[in-house]
Amino acid sequence: MAASSSQSSRLAGANRAALIIVGVLSLLGLAYAIARVDILRARIVVLHTDLDRTREDLAAVTTQLQALQITQTQDSAQLQQAQDTLSHLSSGLNRQISQATQQWTRAEVLYLTRLAQDQLQHAHDPDGARASLEAALSSSLAQPGTIGDEVQQQLQAALTTLNALPAGQGMLIEQQLQSAEQQVAVLPLAAASLQQNAATTDNSDTAWQRFWTRLQQAAGQLILVRRSGEQASMVVSEQHALLQRQYLSQQLLAARLAAARHDQQAYIQSLNVGLQWLDQAFDTAQPGTQTFRKQWLTLKTYNVAPTLPDLNNSIAVLQKSLDKEVTP
Fold first, then answer.
1. Domain-by-domain residue ranges, the chain?
2. Digit-coded pLDDT (tens) for 196-207
């Protein structure tokens, strides 16, 4: 009995100890849980504080962002306005530059066209006029529509006409006339009397009649007639030969002057008279004279007064257009 009572006491003591231990552990766990809760609460408070601070920062950033957006919108509006203003100014400036360029081109074409007209009318220089027209057309093509289709076609037609003319013909005629004058001094004279020459020469012109009269009077004293038996020969003195050559040279000089004046009728007339004198006063049977005569016939084929284009209408149109632009 006593043993079982003692054993029960020991069991009860062990249970109480276990209960105490469990209680202590429970209290420790509860204390730990309470501590953890306090820690979590503190962390939550901190987080709430950080969140509030973050919200305040976010609000400030949002306010700044909104201000930046407003500023950006204003800047964009100002930039767009500046771009519109710049575009307007650029458009106006480009228009003024284009107008000034067209006006300058039109003035340049007018100057070159006037120069070409002066070269044709006063200097009778088709080659120079051709170069001036080419420069005028080149300037007009660089700025299409500047001078108008009508003037463009007129200038192109004038250039086509000038291109159809032989290049350097005036200089060629002058050189060949000078060469002919140099050959006159060595041409062989014909053994004919001055009276025969004078009778067959075309002396319809009064001035030439007076010349022939004086020439006959002067030559009458320069010719010596010698007779030997039944034969008679006429010896042409040195002075007479000089007169014959001078007369042919005078026809060449007259042809040169007519060519310089671009007088086709006077040019051909001088060459015709000179050709008749060549056939009468010089020995045409000689090869040198025959070659010279062929050169003379070649000179007759030249046109010293070709039809040249008239640029006055183009000049008037260009001047009117230029004056219209300059007048406010």
1. 96-166+314-326, 169-300
2. 444 444 444 455
Q: What is the 3-state secondary structure (H, E, C) of 113-179?
A: HHHHHHHHHCCCCHHHHHHHHHHHHHHHHHCCCCCCHHHHHHHHHHHHHHHHCCCCHHHHHHHHHHH
- Alpha-carbon gap, residue 217 to 53, rounded angstroms: 140
Q: CB within 8 A of 120, min separation 6: which ones?
A: 126, 129, 308, 309, 311
| Residues paired with residue 233 on neighbouring β-strands, in sequence order | 226
Distance between CA atoms of 200 and 291, rounded to whole angstroms? 23
Cα of first residue to Cα of last residue in the chain, in angstroms, is 146
In this structure, the dihedral spanned by the alpha carbons of residues 57, 58, 62 and 64, taken in order and rounded to 10 degrees, is: 20
pLDDT at 322: 81
pLDDT over 70, % of the chain: 83
pLDDT tens for 197-237 read: 444 444 444 555 555 555 544 444 444 343 333 333 344 46
Q: How many residues does the chain have?
A: 328
Residue 130 CB burial class (10 angstroms; 0-12, 13-18, ≥19): buried
Look at phi and psi of residue 166 and say left if phi exceeds 0, alpha if psi is from -120 to 50, else beta.
beta
Q: What is the DSSP letter of 310?
A: -
| Residues β-bridged to residue 98 | none
What lies within 8 Å, CB to CB, of 299 at 6+ separation is 173, 176, 177, 180, 255, 271
Higher pLDDT, 110 or 325: 110
* Predicted confidence (pLDDT) per residue in 254-271, tens digit: 999 998 888 899 999 999
Q: What distance in Å separates the CA atoms of residue 125 and residue 130, rounded to the nearest whole number?
A: 9
